[in-house]
Amino acid sequence: MVKNLHKGALVSPADDGRFLWSERSGLMTDSEGLIVDVGDADALKAAFPEAHVIDHGVGIMMPGFIDAHVHFPQYLMAGSHGESLLAWLERYTFPAEIECADTQYAQALAVQFLDQLVHQGTTAAFIFGVSYYGAMEALIRQLKSRRMAAVTGNVWMDRHGPEQLLKSATESMDISERLIKQLEGDVCFGILPRFVPTCSSDALTRCGDLLSQYPNARLQSHLGETQAEVSWVKELHPDAEDYTAVYERSGLLGPRTSFAHGIYLTEREWRALAGTETQLVHCPTANLFLGSGLFNYRRAKDAGVQVGLGTDVGAGTSLCMLETLKACYQVQRLQGGSLSVEELVSMATLGSAQVLGMEDRIGSLEVGKRADFNVLRPAAGSWLAQRWARCESLEERVFASMILGGANDIAETWISGHQVSVSSER
């Protein structure tokens, strides 16, 4: 069995809570695309003399980024002039999704979208889809061909939106069950009610039924993104104690559920999320772009709520997780808090893998997991390269890369042990 020995610095969270820092390490991968050993590079070479050595020089190997919340059909409308969330949905989001009714258009969009994800160093994602079966079939086909790990599915929406996007709960259930038959391996089924205002009680209940019926499925929706949204939910459900309670009474909370945003939550909602092991996904560039508010990461951790990181494109302003991490750090600083380098890296890798329910397969560079990783190495002469030359530690280089770096500083991306992207600057 052919093995590759990757040499370079290594940075990774670990399943046991440790964090791995190594200035010179070896990462051994096999022909199946799995990590078979991690340790001293010279010792690994001595143990496996037949291994093919790939020396990444000063590059830093780190787990592939995992985008825990991104919208495939909104890819080409990102950067549209910002408005409040609800107006922005009407003006930009819904028209962009309607375009995906054209299956040929959706096929081309899936290629563009996934090409760009990989170029940005993202090797897995929780992808919010669209309500059209043909578009989702095209996306799933592309994910499989690229060996990408993902959770995805059709969006449920049966009210308060354009007629072209609305599907009855029965229609959405039918599409979901047709898609489930195509999902296998590391492309898993996602149940995706858009959010409470666009889903009837019947639709939410049916989503809960699916979640119970398919134990490997994951559910994701939106929660508490803006104050106007929270007020709208209260008008629609005056009998509910709060926004979270609407999901809760439909059986949608639990360890296989995550909600994007969670900016505006009551104390009861924090307790409900923590008590059911429901997760949140922080989407900082989207929250800043739409002026939605500032997510309090420390409040989530104090409550015991697991948090992943998402770009939320199209509201998000970049598919690059380095840029998303920069915004994440800045959002906490605006609230008087701070995040360590280990917390930041973990949120974009192992933390997001937990949102996908794939922490046993991806999210860290450990034996038995998929060899999904990036090599971080800035282009010679770039500002970041000059900054690296002055850094006194590996931790300092990683942090500088989050604050000053971008996609061009991710020199290589590997998925299941296969190189899939090389920076255009190399």
Instruction: Report how far apart the termini are.
Output: 30 Å
Largest sheet: 9 strands, parallel
Mean pLDDT: 96
Q: What general outline do the C-alpha atoms trace?
A: globular
Summarize this structure as a short list of keywords or feature phrases:
426 residues, alpha/beta, 16 helices
Please give a structural write-up.
A hairpin with a 4-residue loop joins strand 2 and strand 3 (35-39). The protein has 16 helices and 16 strands. The strands form 2 sheets. Strands 5, 6, 7, 8, 9, 10, 11, 12 and 13 form a 9-stranded parallel beta sheet that branches. A 7-stranded mixed beta sheet has the order 3-2-1-4-14-15-16. The two termini are 30 Å apart. Helices cover 38% and strands 24% of the residues. The protein is globular, with a radius of gyration of 21 Å. The mean pLDDT is 96. By secondary structure, the chain is α/β, with parallel strands linked by helices.
